Amino acid sequence: MLDWMPNQRGSEGCLGEFDLDDLIWTIPEERTKTGAVHRVPLTDQMLGIIEPLQALRSQCVFEGQRRHTPLSNMSMLMLLRRMEIEGVTVHGFRSAFRDWASEVGNHPREVAELSLGHKVGSEVERAYARSDLLSRRRELMRDWNLFACSQCGG
Question: Which of 32, 34, 62, 81 could form a disulfide with 71 if both were Cys (CB 3.0 to 4.6 A apart)?
Answer without folding.
Answer: 62
